[in-house]
Amino acid sequence: MVPFEAPEALEKRLGVRFHLRLGANESLFGPSPAAIEAMRERAATSFHYGDPQSYELRHALAERFGIRADNVCVASGIDELLSLATRLFVAPGEFVVTSVGTYPTFDFAALGAGADVRKAPYRNDAPDVEALAEEARHCKARLVYLANPDNPTGALLGALEVARLREALPHDCVLLLDEAYSDFAPVGTLPKISGGDPGVLRLRTFSKAYGMAGARIGYVIAHDSHIRELDKIRLHFGVNAVAQAGALASLSDDRHLNHVVAETSKGRRRLREVALTCGFETLPSATNFVAIDFGTREKAEAVLNSLLQKGVFVRKPSAPPLDRLVRITIGRSEDLDLFEEIFPTVL
Amino acid sequence: MVPFEAPEALEKRLGVRFHLRLGANESLFGPSPAAIEAMRERAATSFHYGDPQSYELRHALAERFGIRADNVCVASGIDELLSLATRLFVAPGEFVVTSVGTYPTFDFAALGAGADVRKAPYRNDAPDVEALAEEARHCKARLVYLANPDNPTGALLGALEVARLREALPHDCVLLLDEAYSDFAPVGTLPKISGGDPGVLRLRTFSKAYGMAGARIGYVIAHDSHIRELDKIRLHFGVNAVAQAGALASLSDDRHLNHVVAETSKGRRRLREVALTCGFETLPSATNFVAIDFGTREKAEAVLNSLLQKGVFVRKPSAPPLDRLVRITIGRSEDLDLFEEIFPTVL
């Protein structure tokens, strides 16, 4: 099953060539120059397998977050971790809970593990912690999935709300926190990092703020007992060496990260103004994208299709009530210039 | 579970630093210069996701083998394909068959899918097609695994023998042919490539002769009905973009491939002479490694440990009767010079 049609496939199907990719929340700011250099170097020695234990990277992450390397497992992106986590925690026929319309790859992973997927609706265009907890208690769920900040809305739940969800879950239910966009969230808003709680898995990635989506590398922070179990079922030599080198170098370049986060924050304000000028509201976002609200599914689909035809790759949620949104990735100012030029012509 | 201890972990455990890596059948000849250049370039744009359908690479492979792109699925190496294939073909409690002492990652994948793993013994230090077929019929296996050329012995079964195995299997049993070392086999010895037989999956990789082990990329050639099923369960965006670019460029550089294969062939003869000079036989090999026969497990372990202590990373099989072997990767002539110098000192 295919959670997302790739821009390459879409180009072939529509017979267009995308000159602006604002549809997959890739970072148009690129990876850190230090990461590019490290990856270029490791590409030349890629005849050597990468370290299957990602020793250096796990230790660098542990130091960054004040935890132990035993609390970190590295994998080929969050998608792989969703698959590993569902296989680890859910037996066929058991239940998991997610939100209607949130990042869909969790559903595919859960279905692949034989899980029964239950869904809670959004409230005010954000995941509803009470509805999630209620559904989890009702079906005795083994896993609850929460993307925070959320994709595709951009909504942020604060540390207190996440703690409330965690505490309201059945005692043997694990909270799977997909924090792909965490680097864009205002400092201090997310739950404090700790490796001590067996009830929460925190999934993070180098694909978004670190600009390494094509390199495929992410990690999970969790209780060491979970990390040991993940180590038993993950592909031992699965994480590529080039990505490991790039990720490690990225962690030593906070200047680039801070630049990306600051420019993204400016870009969000600018995109909101562009939308408002044309008469459309946007949803608040703590990510590197902004969802523009077109009021109806029909209008949103018309705008999406026109943008695609004009060579601008964007995506939209398909599940009501989010189907009235079109999601735009924040690019560099030159990318936003181009978007600002094209957007009014498709309305 | 960990099929192989990594050289990085071994270095830490033993307190040594390896200056010669001849233990993981990595290609010390490196990737093609064209592949390195392509990977270096793609590293800089690795903020873009790779094409989840590997469109260009699948089409290049299809052209190379005279099949259709619908007969090819790309993944992050053969290990991932072993995991996908076992999940696709084997339900928990069903049987699979492999050989005692062959490449162990199949066993881990099969156990992970809940399979019951049965094993046939080697005959004359090679997989025994009759024993495999008999065991498969006996337990009504869903999958039979055969590494050909074999790892860790280097043995090659010809096309006729593979066809004999294929025909002797139950009609609903699929032959999983791990052809990681196929590029080193003499031309014309392996079964002809075709996408038309639903009874065989052929797994191939860029990790060995193409020298891209750390990049993580491999593929399977199979009937299009199997490819469609694999597409449903694989990680959609899992194959990294850098590896895709490198693999594609590799395919256009047959000169490098031919050079690696020719040098490896010379190196096998040389390594055999080195062993014979010291009084030890070697097994015939159609791969980029040679297994030296030390007669007993104790002797082989003593040699292995001495080589490790001297900074030479090698591995040995642990299952009898192969436990009397130490497996040495064929490197460049300068690597073999070094090995030739050190080897007599550890005997």
Task: Give structural notes.
Two copies of one chain form a homodimer. The first copy, chain A, is of the alpha/beta class and 347 residues long. The first copy, chain A, contains twelve helices and twelve strands. Chain A has helices spanning 7-14, 33-44, 55-65, 78-89, 105-112, 129-139, 159-168, 224-233, 241-251, 254-277, 297-309, 333-342, and strands at 20-21, 72-75, 95-99, 116-120, 143-147, 174-178, 200-205, 218-221, 281-282, 289-293, 312-313, 325-329. Chain A has a seven-stranded mixed sheet with strand order 2-8-7-6-5-3-4, sandwiched between helices. In chain A, strand 9 (281-282) and strand 10 form a beta hairpin. In chain A, helix 3 (55-65) packs parallel to helix 9 (241-251), helix 4 runs parallel beside helix 5 (105-112) and helix 6 (129-139) packs parallel to helix 7 (159-168). The relative contact order of chain A is 0.18. At the A-B interface, helix 1, helix 2, helix 4, helix 5 and helix 8 of A face helix 1, helix 2, helix 4, helix 5 and helix 8 of B.
> What percentage of residues of chain A falls in helices of 4 or more residues?
40-55%
**Largest protein-protein interface:** A-B, 60 and 60 residues
Give the ordered list of helices and strands of chain A.
Answer: HEHHEHEHEHEHEEEHHHEEHEEH
Distance between the termini of chain A: 33 Å
Global outline of chain A: globular
Neighbour order of strands in the largest sheet of chain A: 2-8-7-6-5-3-4
Radius of gyration of chain A: 20 Å
Main sheet properties of chain A: 7 strands, mixed
How confident overall, as mean pLDDT of chain A?
A: 97
Report the portion of residues of chain A in β strands. 5-15%
Unreliable stretches of chain A:
none
The computed structural class of chain A is alpha/beta
- Count of alpha/pi helices of chain A: 12
Number of strands of chain A: 12
Oligomer: homodimer
